[in-house]
Amino acid sequence: MKNFKIIYWVSTGLLTAMMLMSAGMYIFNNPAIREAFSKLGHPTHIIYPLAIAKILGLIAIWTNKSRSLKEWAYAGFFFNFVLAFAAHVMVNDGEFMAPLIALVLLLVSYFSWAKQDRAI
Q1: CA-to-CA distance for 11 and 50, rounded, in angstroms?
Q2: Closest CA to 58 of 33, 99, 23, 91
Q3: Is residue 99 a contact partner of residue 84, using CB atoms and an 8 Å limit?
């Protein structure tokens, strides 16, 4: 069980770093993100709410206040990463690796957490 805890903390930490960098870019480098969203065909008015949602999702994952809230946060990140990956592949801009890495980290984090949670 100790291996799953280590895997959970490492994958969740790396996922957190990626999401904080992403949310930070959405807030502090907004003109470049607006351009990127426009190229992907996404509306630019969702940039700030998406940054806030990423931060709130991380809080839900790290605080462990509610199991269902944590699962919803994982689900929200899952759909965000899958759709981001698909959007980058569809426009063929070569930027699909970040969402793919985030998706792998998310799945590793979720399944290692679930394995620990079932063992308790």
Answers
A1: 22
A2: 23
A3: yes
**Total count of residues recorded for the chain:** 120
| pLDDT at residue 119, as a whole number | 63
Chain centroid offset of residue 110 CA? 12
Q: Show me where the domains of the chain are located.
A: 2-119
**What is the spatial distance between Cα 39 and Cα 54, in angstroms, rounded to a whole number?**
21
Flag whether pLDDT at 120 surpasses 70. no
Taking the C-alpha atoms of residue 77 and residue 81, their distance in angstroms, rounded to an integer, is 6
Amino acid in the structure at residue 75: A
Structure tokens at 32: 């470049």
Nearest Cα to 7, choosing from 105, 119, 117? 105
Express the helix, strand and coil content of the chain in percent, nearest 5 each: 90, 0, 10
Query: Full-prediction pTM beyond 0.70?
Result: yes
**Amino acid present at 88:** H
- Per-chain mean pLDDT for the chain: 93
| Contact predicate 66/74, CB 8 Å | no
